[in-house]
Amino acid sequence: MKSLGILVSSVLSAQVIYAVSITELDDFNAPNGAPNPEEGWREGNGSPSQPSRQLTGGLDGSGFLTDSSSGISPGKRMQLWNTAQWTGNYLGQSISTLSLDANNLSGPGGQTINLRVALNGLGGWFVTEPQVLLPEAGWQSLIFDLSLTGLVHAGQGNAVYDSTMSAVTRLQIISLEEDTFDFGGNAGLRGDSIAASLGLDNIKAGAAIPEPSGVALILMGCTGLMRRRR
Ligand SMILES: [Ca+2]
Ligand SMILES: [Ca+2]
Question: How far is the CA of 13 from the centre of ligand 2 (A)?
Answer without folding.
Answer: 31
